[in-house]
Amino acid sequence: MSQYVSRLGRRSPSAAPRLRLHRRPRRIAMLSVHTSPLHQPGTGDAGGMNVYIVELAQRLAAINIEVEIFTRATAGGLPPTVQLAPGVLVRHVDAGPYEGLAKEDLPAQLCAFTHGVMQAWAGHRPGHYDLVHSHYWLSGHVGWLAAQRWGVPLVHAMHTMAKVKNANLADGDTPEPAARVIGETQIVAAADRLIANTAEEADELVRHYAADPAGVAVVHPGVNLDRFRPADGRAAARARLGLPQDALIPLFAGRIQPLKAPDILLRAVAALLDERPDLRSRILVPVVGGPSGSGLAKPEGLQKLAARLGVADVVRFRPPVGQEQLADWFRAASVLVMPSYSESFGLVAIEAQAAGTPVLAASVGGLPVAVRDGHTGFLVDGHDPADYARVLRRFADEPSLAARMGRAAARHAQSFGWDTAAAATADVYTAATQSHRRRVRSHHG
Questions:
Q1: Is residue 165 part of an annotated ligand binding site?
Q2: What whole-number distance in Å separates Cα of residue 162 and Cα of residue 156?
Q3: Where does the chain bind UDP-N-acetyl-alpha-D-glucosamine (predicted)?
Protein backbone atom coordinates (compact mmCIF):
# COMPACT_ATOMS: atom_id res chain seq x y z
CA MET A 1 0.00 0.00 0.00
CA SER A 2 1.43 3.40 -0.89
CA GLN A 3 2.36 5.93 1.77
CA TYR A 4 -0.63 8.07 0.70
CA VAL A 5 -3.07 5.22 1.20
CA SER A 6 -1.81 4.12 4.60
CA ARG A 7 -1.48 7.69 5.89
CA LEU A 8 -5.09 8.52 5.16
CA GLY A 9 -6.45 5.13 6.14
CA ARG A 10 -7.95 4.91 2.65
CA ARG A 11 -9.02 1.77 0.89
CA SER A 12 -6.56 -0.10 -1.27
CA PRO A 13 -7.45 0.24 -4.97
CA SER A 14 -6.47 -3.39 -5.58
CA ALA A 15 -9.78 -4.42 -3.99
CA ALA A 16 -11.78 -2.22 -6.35
CA PRO A 17 -13.95 -4.01 -8.92
CA ARG A 18 -14.31 -2.70 -12.48
CA LEU A 19 -15.29 0.97 -12.27
CA ARG A 20 -18.95 1.52 -12.98
CA LEU A 21 -20.00 4.45 -15.08
CA HIS A 22 -23.33 5.39 -13.49
CA ARG A 23 -23.09 8.33 -11.11
CA ARG A 24 -25.65 7.78 -8.39
CA PRO A 25 -25.43 4.54 -6.38
CA ARG A 26 -28.28 2.09 -6.91
CA ARG A 27 -27.86 -0.09 -3.83
CA ILE A 28 -26.58 0.95 -0.40
CA ALA A 29 -25.40 -1.27 2.45
CA MET A 30 -26.50 0.65 5.55
CA LEU A 31 -24.98 -0.41 8.87
CA SER A 32 -26.63 0.00 12.27
CA VAL A 33 -24.85 -2.39 14.63
CA HIS A 34 -26.16 -1.40 18.05
CA THR A 35 -29.77 -0.50 17.42
CA SER A 36 -32.31 -2.07 15.08
CA PRO A 37 -34.54 0.06 12.86
CA LEU A 38 -37.33 -2.33 13.91
CA HIS A 39 -37.04 -1.39 17.61
CA GLN A 40 -39.36 0.96 19.49
CA PRO A 41 -37.67 4.40 19.93
CA GLY A 42 -37.40 5.46 23.57
CA THR A 43 -36.42 1.97 24.79
CA GLY A 44 -32.89 0.78 25.59
CA ASP A 45 -30.53 2.32 23.05
CA ALA A 46 -33.28 3.02 20.52
CA GLY A 47 -33.91 6.71 19.91
CA GLY A 48 -33.69 9.39 17.26
CA MET A 49 -31.13 7.40 15.28
CA ASN A 50 -33.60 4.55 14.73
CA VAL A 51 -36.19 6.99 13.39
CA TYR A 52 -33.49 8.63 11.24
CA ILE A 53 -32.42 5.34 9.63
CA VAL A 54 -35.98 4.09 8.96
CA GLU A 55 -37.22 7.37 7.46
CA LEU A 56 -34.06 8.00 5.43
CA ALA A 57 -34.04 4.45 4.01
CA GLN A 58 -37.70 4.67 2.97
CA ARG A 59 -37.22 8.04 1.25
CA LEU A 60 -34.05 6.83 -0.52
CA ALA A 61 -35.98 3.81 -1.80
CA ALA A 62 -38.66 6.19 -3.09
CA ILE A 63 -36.00 7.89 -5.28
CA ASN A 64 -34.78 4.50 -6.58
CA ILE A 65 -31.85 3.89 -4.25
CA GLU A 66 -32.29 0.42 -2.73
CA VAL A 67 -31.21 0.09 0.91
CA GLU A 68 -30.16 -3.01 2.83
CA ILE A 69 -29.81 -2.32 6.57
CA PHE A 70 -27.53 -4.66 8.54
CA THR A 71 -28.28 -4.77 12.28
CA ARG A 72 -27.43 -7.08 15.18
CA ALA A 73 -29.98 -9.80 16.00
CA THR A 74 -31.20 -9.13 19.56
CA ALA A 75 -33.57 -12.10 19.88
CA GLY A 76 -33.52 -15.74 18.87
CA GLY A 77 -35.68 -16.88 15.98
CA LEU A 78 -35.69 -13.58 14.10
CA PRO A 79 -36.00 -14.05 10.34
CA PRO A 80 -32.65 -13.43 8.61
CA THR A 81 -34.26 -10.69 6.49
CA VAL A 82 -37.33 -8.47 6.95
CA GLN A 83 -38.82 -6.30 4.22
CA LEU A 84 -39.31 -2.96 6.02
CA ALA A 85 -40.77 -1.22 2.95
CA PRO A 86 -40.49 -1.60 -0.83
CA GLY A 87 -36.78 -1.27 -1.61
CA VAL A 88 -35.73 -1.47 2.09
CA LEU A 89 -34.47 -4.77 3.51
CA VAL A 90 -33.35 -5.33 7.12
CA ARG A 91 -30.74 -8.09 7.58
CA HIS A 92 -30.33 -9.58 11.07
CA VAL A 93 -26.72 -10.52 11.81
CA ASP A 94 -25.84 -12.98 14.59
CA ALA A 95 -23.13 -11.38 16.76
CA GLY A 96 -22.90 -12.24 20.43
CA PRO A 97 -25.71 -13.27 22.80
CA TYR A 98 -29.18 -12.01 21.89
CA GLU A 99 -30.20 -10.59 25.24
CA GLY A 100 -28.48 -8.46 27.85
CA LEU A 101 -25.53 -7.22 25.82
CA ALA A 102 -24.81 -3.60 26.80
CA LYS A 103 -23.61 -1.12 24.18
CA GLU A 104 -20.25 -1.06 26.01
CA ASP A 105 -19.82 -4.81 25.28
CA LEU A 106 -20.46 -4.47 21.56
CA PRO A 107 -16.91 -3.61 20.37
CA ALA A 108 -15.96 -7.21 21.23
CA GLN A 109 -18.67 -8.43 18.81
CA LEU A 110 -17.64 -6.29 15.81
CA CYS A 111 -15.55 -9.10 14.34
CA ALA A 112 -18.55 -11.48 14.43
CA PHE A 113 -20.79 -8.76 12.98
CA THR A 114 -18.33 -8.05 10.16
CA HIS A 115 -18.22 -11.77 9.40
CA GLY A 116 -22.03 -11.79 9.05
CA VAL A 117 -21.94 -8.79 6.70
CA MET A 118 -19.25 -10.45 4.58
CA GLN A 119 -21.25 -13.69 4.42
CA ALA A 120 -24.27 -11.82 3.07
CA TRP A 121 -22.07 -10.09 0.50
CA ALA A 122 -20.45 -13.36 -0.58
CA GLY A 123 -23.87 -14.62 -1.70
CA HIS A 124 -24.18 -11.84 -4.30
CA ARG A 125 -22.53 -11.16 -7.63
CA PRO A 126 -19.54 -8.78 -7.52
CA GLY A 127 -20.49 -5.12 -7.32
CA HIS A 128 -23.82 -5.79 -5.53
CA TYR A 129 -23.38 -2.82 -3.18
CA ASP A 130 -22.32 0.54 -4.61
CA LEU A 131 -21.64 2.28 -1.31
CA VAL A 132 -21.56 1.73 2.46
CA HIS A 133 -23.36 4.18 4.77
CA SER A 134 -22.54 3.52 8.45
CA HIS A 135 -24.30 5.05 11.45
CA TYR A 136 -22.49 5.61 14.79
CA TRP A 137 -18.90 4.64 15.47
CA LEU A 138 -19.50 0.90 16.06
CA SER A 139 -20.97 0.58 12.57
CA GLY A 140 -18.21 2.79 11.18
CA HIS A 141 -15.60 0.18 12.04
CA VAL A 142 -17.48 -2.52 10.17
CA GLY A 143 -18.14 -0.09 7.31
CA TRP A 144 -14.46 0.80 7.06
CA LEU A 145 -13.53 -2.84 6.48
CA ALA A 146 -16.51 -3.65 4.23
CA ALA A 147 -15.97 -0.63 1.97
CA GLN A 148 -12.27 -1.45 1.64
CA ARG A 149 -12.98 -5.09 0.82
CA TRP A 150 -15.67 -4.24 -1.72
CA GLY A 151 -13.80 -1.34 -3.30
CA VAL A 152 -16.68 1.10 -2.74
CA PRO A 153 -16.96 4.49 -0.98
CA LEU A 154 -17.70 4.81 2.74
CA VAL A 155 -20.13 7.48 3.97
CA HIS A 156 -20.34 7.78 7.75
CA ALA A 157 -22.70 9.59 10.13
CA MET A 158 -21.44 9.98 13.72
CA HIS A 159 -24.82 10.85 15.33
CA THR A 160 -22.91 11.56 18.55
CA MET A 161 -19.19 12.01 19.28
CA ALA A 162 -17.27 10.84 22.33
CA LYS A 163 -15.15 13.99 22.59
CA VAL A 164 -18.21 16.25 22.45
CA LYS A 165 -20.16 14.14 24.98
CA ASN A 166 -17.21 14.04 27.38
CA ALA A 167 -16.87 17.82 27.20
CA ASN A 168 -20.55 18.21 28.23
CA LEU A 169 -21.09 15.48 30.83
CA ALA A 170 -23.96 15.58 33.29
CA ASP A 171 -23.02 15.28 36.97
CA GLY A 172 -22.35 11.65 37.81
CA ASP A 173 -22.54 10.49 34.19
CA THR A 174 -19.90 8.08 32.88
CA PRO A 175 -17.42 9.43 30.30
CA GLU A 176 -17.12 7.67 26.94
CA PRO A 177 -14.10 5.29 26.84
CA ALA A 178 -10.80 6.06 25.11
CA ALA A 179 -11.39 3.12 22.73
CA ARG A 180 -14.37 4.98 21.27
CA VAL A 181 -12.33 8.17 20.75
CA ILE A 182 -9.64 6.19 18.92
CA GLY A 183 -12.26 4.35 16.86
CA GLU A 184 -13.97 7.58 15.82
CA THR A 185 -10.64 9.13 14.83
CA GLN A 186 -9.88 6.13 12.58
CA ILE A 187 -13.31 6.27 10.91
CA VAL A 188 -13.03 10.01 10.22
CA ALA A 189 -9.73 9.34 8.44
CA ALA A 190 -11.15 6.39 6.47
CA ALA A 191 -14.49 7.79 5.28
CA ASP A 192 -14.93 9.31 1.83
CA ARG A 193 -17.66 11.58 3.18
CA LEU A 194 -18.96 12.41 6.65
CA ILE A 195 -22.56 13.51 7.15
CA ALA A 196 -23.14 16.03 9.96
CA ASN A 197 -26.60 17.01 11.24
CA THR A 198 -25.69 20.68 11.65
CA ALA A 199 -22.94 23.17 10.77
CA GLU A 200 -21.87 23.03 14.42
CA GLU A 201 -21.41 19.25 14.24
CA ALA A 202 -19.38 19.71 11.03
CA ASP A 203 -17.13 22.19 12.87
CA GLU A 204 -16.73 19.74 15.75
CA LEU A 205 -15.62 17.00 13.36
CA VAL A 206 -12.95 19.30 11.97
CA ARG A 207 -11.92 20.70 15.36
CA HIS A 208 -11.91 17.52 17.47
CA TYR A 209 -11.15 14.86 14.86
CA ALA A 210 -9.15 16.74 12.19
CA ALA A 211 -11.75 15.91 9.50
CA ASP A 212 -11.11 17.39 6.05
CA PRO A 213 -13.70 20.22 5.79
CA ALA A 214 -14.22 19.41 2.10
CA GLY A 215 -15.27 15.88 3.05
CA VAL A 216 -17.97 16.90 5.55
CA ALA A 217 -21.53 17.52 4.32
CA VAL A 218 -24.30 19.04 6.45
CA VAL A 219 -27.68 17.34 6.04
CA HIS A 220 -30.42 18.25 8.55
CA PRO A 221 -32.45 15.22 9.63
CA GLY A 222 -36.07 15.36 8.61
CA VAL A 223 -39.37 14.80 10.35
CA ASN A 224 -42.33 12.75 9.18
CA LEU A 225 -44.70 15.65 8.48
CA ASP A 226 -47.62 13.30 7.72
CA ARG A 227 -47.41 11.78 11.21
CA PHE A 228 -46.31 14.82 13.22
CA ARG A 229 -48.82 17.55 12.46
CA PRO A 230 -51.22 19.65 14.57
CA ALA A 231 -54.17 17.43 13.40
CA ASP A 232 -57.29 18.16 15.47
CA GLY A 233 -55.43 20.17 18.10
CA ARG A 234 -54.52 20.20 21.78
CA ALA A 235 -57.98 19.74 23.31
CA ALA A 236 -58.75 16.60 21.29
CA ALA A 237 -55.33 15.08 22.05
CA ARG A 238 -55.81 15.74 25.79
CA ALA A 239 -59.24 14.12 25.67
CA ARG A 240 -57.80 11.01 23.97
CA LEU A 241 -54.99 10.71 26.54
CA GLY A 242 -57.25 11.43 29.52
CA LEU A 243 -55.41 14.64 30.46
CA PRO A 244 -57.01 17.72 32.08
CA GLN A 245 -57.98 20.38 29.53
CA ASP A 246 -56.86 23.45 31.48
CA ALA A 247 -53.57 22.17 32.93
CA LEU A 248 -50.06 23.42 32.22
CA ILE A 249 -48.43 20.29 30.76
CA PRO A 250 -44.64 20.45 30.33
CA LEU A 251 -43.65 17.15 28.66
CA PHE A 252 -40.40 15.19 28.72
CA ALA A 253 -40.19 12.57 25.93
CA GLY A 254 -37.08 10.47 25.41
CA ARG A 255 -34.68 8.04 26.96
CA ILE A 256 -34.27 8.45 30.72
CA GLN A 257 -30.55 8.96 31.21
CA PRO A 258 -28.38 11.73 32.73
CA LEU A 259 -27.41 13.05 29.27
CA LYS A 260 -31.07 13.92 28.50
CA ALA A 261 -31.45 15.60 31.93
CA PRO A 262 -35.09 14.86 32.78
CA ASP A 263 -34.11 15.65 36.39
CA ILE A 264 -33.72 19.33 35.41
CA LEU A 265 -37.41 19.43 34.45
CA LEU A 266 -38.45 17.90 37.80
CA ARG A 267 -36.24 20.36 39.71
CA ALA A 268 -37.67 23.27 37.67
CA VAL A 269 -41.24 22.16 38.45
CA ALA A 270 -40.35 21.90 42.16
CA ALA A 271 -38.88 25.43 42.07
CA LEU A 272 -41.97 26.74 40.26
CA LEU A 273 -44.34 25.17 42.81
CA ASP A 274 -42.29 26.49 45.74
CA GLU A 275 -42.79 29.97 44.40
CA ARG A 276 -46.35 29.45 43.08
CA PRO A 277 -48.16 26.80 45.18
CA ASP A 278 -51.42 27.89 43.50
CA LEU A 279 -50.22 26.16 40.29
CA ARG A 280 -50.11 22.68 41.89
CA SER A 281 -53.76 22.00 41.10
CA ARG A 282 -53.27 22.78 37.43
CA ILE A 283 -49.90 21.34 36.43
CA LEU A 284 -49.18 17.84 35.14
CA VAL A 285 -45.71 16.62 34.10
CA PRO A 286 -45.66 13.51 31.87
CA VAL A 287 -42.30 11.72 31.49
CA VAL A 288 -42.66 9.45 28.45
CA GLY A 289 -39.73 7.07 27.92
CA GLY A 290 -37.69 4.24 29.39
CA PRO A 291 -34.33 4.09 31.18
CA SER A 292 -31.31 3.82 28.90
CA GLY A 293 -27.51 3.89 28.87
CA SER A 294 -26.09 5.00 32.21
CA GLY A 295 -29.69 5.55 33.38
CA LEU A 296 -30.13 1.77 33.53
CA ALA A 297 -27.86 1.63 36.59
CA LYS A 298 -30.66 3.23 38.67
CA PRO A 299 -33.87 2.91 36.63
CA GLU A 300 -36.01 4.11 39.57
CA GLY A 301 -33.76 7.13 40.23
CA LEU A 302 -36.08 9.67 38.62
CA GLN A 303 -39.15 8.41 40.55
CA LYS A 304 -37.18 8.72 43.79
CA LEU A 305 -36.09 12.23 42.85
CA ALA A 306 -39.71 13.26 42.18
CA ALA A 307 -40.66 12.01 45.66
CA ARG A 308 -37.68 13.75 47.28
CA LEU A 309 -38.56 17.05 45.56
CA GLY A 310 -42.20 16.73 46.65
CA VAL A 311 -43.57 16.68 43.08
CA ALA A 312 -44.46 12.98 42.74
CA ASP A 313 -48.16 13.90 42.82
CA VAL A 314 -47.91 15.97 39.60
CA VAL A 315 -45.47 13.73 37.66
CA ARG A 316 -46.78 10.86 35.50
CA PHE A 317 -44.26 8.24 34.32
CA ARG A 318 -45.30 6.57 31.08
CA PRO A 319 -43.47 3.83 29.13
CA PRO A 320 -42.23 4.60 25.59
CA VAL A 321 -45.02 4.76 23.01
CA GLY A 322 -45.27 4.26 19.24
CA GLN A 323 -44.84 7.18 16.86
CA GLU A 324 -48.59 7.75 16.35
CA GLN A 325 -49.26 8.02 20.09
CA LEU A 326 -46.10 10.07 20.60
CA ALA A 327 -47.53 12.62 18.15
CA ASP A 328 -50.63 12.81 20.39
CA TRP A 329 -48.47 13.42 23.50
CA PHE A 330 -46.76 16.27 21.66
CA ARG A 331 -50.12 17.79 20.63
CA ALA A 332 -51.42 17.49 24.19
CA ALA A 333 -48.40 19.20 25.80
CA SER A 334 -48.19 22.91 26.54
CA VAL A 335 -44.44 22.73 25.87
CA LEU A 336 -41.83 20.02 25.26
CA VAL A 337 -38.86 20.36 27.64
CA MET A 338 -35.39 19.21 26.45
CA PRO A 339 -32.72 20.18 29.02
CA SER A 340 -30.11 17.85 27.40
CA TYR A 341 -26.38 18.22 28.07
CA SER A 342 -25.52 17.16 24.52
CA GLU A 343 -27.73 16.64 21.47
CA SER A 344 -26.37 16.15 17.95
CA PHE A 345 -29.66 17.41 16.53
CA GLY A 346 -32.64 16.74 18.78
CA LEU A 347 -35.14 15.18 16.38
CA VAL A 348 -37.80 15.18 19.12
CA ALA A 349 -37.71 19.00 19.10
CA ILE A 350 -38.67 19.11 15.42
CA GLU A 351 -41.33 16.40 15.85
CA ALA A 352 -42.98 18.34 18.69
CA GLN A 353 -42.92 21.59 16.72
CA ALA A 354 -44.37 19.86 13.65
CA ALA A 355 -47.24 18.74 15.92
CA GLY A 356 -47.80 22.40 16.88
CA THR A 357 -46.05 22.47 20.26
CA PRO A 358 -43.32 24.92 21.35
CA VAL A 359 -40.03 23.66 22.82
CA LEU A 360 -38.05 24.74 25.87
CA ALA A 361 -34.51 23.44 25.34
CA ALA A 362 -30.92 23.74 26.45
CA SER A 363 -28.89 25.76 23.97
CA VAL A 364 -26.61 22.82 23.05
CA GLY A 365 -25.63 20.93 19.90
CA GLY A 366 -28.22 21.10 17.14
CA LEU A 367 -31.03 22.48 19.31
CA PRO A 368 -30.38 26.14 18.32
CA VAL A 369 -30.98 25.01 14.69
CA ALA A 370 -34.07 23.00 15.62
CA VAL A 371 -35.66 25.72 17.79
CA ARG A 372 -36.02 29.40 16.84
CA ASP A 373 -35.47 31.12 20.17
CA GLY A 374 -38.32 33.44 21.11
CA HIS A 375 -40.43 32.36 18.11
CA THR A 376 -41.02 28.59 18.23
CA GLY A 377 -39.82 28.09 21.78
CA PHE A 378 -37.11 29.17 24.21
CA LEU A 379 -33.43 28.25 24.48
CA VAL A 380 -31.74 28.30 27.88
CA ASP A 381 -27.99 28.64 28.43
CA GLY A 382 -26.86 26.08 30.98
CA HIS A 383 -28.83 23.74 33.23
CA ASP A 384 -29.98 25.85 36.18
CA PRO A 385 -33.52 24.61 37.07
CA ALA A 386 -34.44 28.20 38.07
CA ASP A 387 -34.01 29.32 34.43
CA TYR A 388 -36.35 26.60 33.22
CA ALA A 389 -38.82 27.40 36.01
CA ARG A 390 -38.89 31.04 34.84
CA VAL A 391 -39.93 30.00 31.32
CA LEU A 392 -42.52 27.54 32.63
CA ARG A 393 -44.01 30.38 34.71
CA ARG A 394 -44.45 32.40 31.50
CA PHE A 395 -46.41 29.53 29.95
CA ALA A 396 -48.53 29.32 33.12
CA ASP A 397 -49.24 33.06 33.20
CA GLU A 398 -49.80 33.60 29.46
CA PRO A 399 -52.33 30.98 28.36
CA SER A 400 -52.14 32.17 24.72
CA LEU A 401 -48.33 31.75 24.55
CA ALA A 402 -48.36 27.99 23.87
CA ALA A 403 -50.91 28.33 21.06
CA ARG A 404 -49.16 31.32 19.46
CA MET A 405 -45.70 29.76 19.56
CA GLY A 406 -47.16 26.40 18.53
CA ARG A 407 -48.48 27.86 15.28
CA ALA A 408 -45.06 29.35 14.51
CA ALA A 409 -43.43 26.02 15.45
CA ALA A 410 -45.60 24.05 13.01
CA ARG A 411 -44.65 26.46 10.18
CA HIS A 412 -40.94 26.27 11.11
CA ALA A 413 -40.98 22.45 11.07
CA GLN A 414 -42.28 22.36 7.49
CA SER A 415 -38.75 23.04 6.20
CA PHE A 416 -37.50 19.78 7.79
CA GLY A 417 -39.23 17.21 5.55
CA TRP A 418 -37.49 13.85 4.99
CA ASP A 419 -37.71 14.20 1.20
CA THR A 420 -35.30 17.14 1.42
CA ALA A 421 -32.95 15.14 3.67
CA ALA A 422 -33.02 12.09 1.36
CA ALA A 423 -32.29 14.17 -1.75
CA ALA A 424 -29.37 15.86 0.03
CA THR A 425 -28.05 12.46 1.21
CA ALA A 426 -28.25 11.11 -2.35
CA ASP A 427 -26.11 14.08 -3.44
CA VAL A 428 -23.55 13.17 -0.76
CA TYR A 429 -23.49 9.59 -2.10
CA THR A 430 -22.83 10.91 -5.62
CA ALA A 431 -20.01 13.16 -4.39
CA ALA A 432 -18.47 10.28 -2.38
CA THR A 433 -18.64 8.00 -5.43
CA GLN A 434 -16.92 10.59 -7.62
CA SER A 435 -14.12 11.36 -5.16
CA HIS A 436 -13.60 7.64 -4.52
CA ARG A 437 -13.35 7.04 -8.26
CA ARG A 438 -10.89 9.91 -8.72
CA ARG A 439 -8.69 8.54 -5.97
CA VAL A 440 -8.71 5.03 -7.40
CA ARG A 441 -7.90 6.46 -10.85
CA SER A 442 -4.97 8.47 -9.50
CA HIS A 443 -3.55 5.30 -7.88
CA HIS A 444 -3.88 3.36 -11.13
CA GLY A 445 -2.45 6.29 -13.08
A1: no
A2: 15
A3: 40-41, 48, 255, 260, 321, 343, 351
